[in-house]
Amino acid sequence: MILVLYGTREARELISLISASGYPVLATALTAYGGTLAGLGGAVEVLPAPEDAGDLVRQIKLRGISLVVDATHPFPGPLSEFARIACRTLQVPYVRYRRRETVLPDDPLIHPVDSWTAAVEMAARLGDTIFLTTGSNNLEAFIQSPLMKGKRLVVRIWPEHRIIKKCQDLGLSPRDIVALHGPFSTRFNRAIFQAYRADVIVTRDSGNTTDTKIKAALALKLPVVVIRRTQSSDNNMADSYSQVLRFIRDHLGDPA
């Protein structure tokens, strides 16, 4: 039994591909909607999101999971950390699928940074209406920074109740919460940046979805702060579906 950690569009495609290759697949996701999409991808069952690494250890033992595929966001969150700890504890093979990094254009409007703190500082210098396309993770870094005093923060997030509530609890006005389901085209991004009169765009290097945001911003002559990925300590990384399948076959052999 293979467990896929759901968190991206590619996760659903990987579930379908692994299932079609003859391996039974379980899935887990942090949101109910993510779990629904994982089920549509072909997972035989969607497990509740683990509360911590110990909870995931128990699920792996109970379900007889023999390999874990991490297909969460390129910027790893708690689910990835739980999986790394659980797999290391139980000596279960673990592979992380991550989109290839974005090749940034050589343009003075693009400002790469290596941390959330640096992103806050750069965005504060570049404009007064700051449009965050970074989701809800680390939103506190912006909202709670003294550098944001007098600035308008607009955030685009996944349209899920828990995430919207987090934004409201942090004090964001409903008019500054853009709850939409991507992916978004360059044309759509351009229109929404214009509609909110953004002065600066903040994004993460999430791979292929980052490109349309950058193109839209540059078309509008808007500066873009790009938070680069940290170097991963994972030994088993894959940036293609074929690499994931090869890892599975190398560790589990051909399906029965």
Automatic annotation (TrEMBL):
InterPro entries: Precorrin-6x_reduct (IPR003723). Pfam families: CbiJ. GO terms for biological process: cobalamin biosynthetic process. GO terms for molecular function: precorrin-6A reductase activity. Transmembrane segments: none annotated. Its EC number is 1.3.1.54. Keywords: Cobalamin biosynthesis, Oxidoreductase. Pathway: Cofactor biosynthesis; adenosylcobalamin biosynthesis. It comes from the Bacteria. This is Precorrin-6A reductase. It comes from Desulfofundulus thermobenzoicus. The gene is cobK.
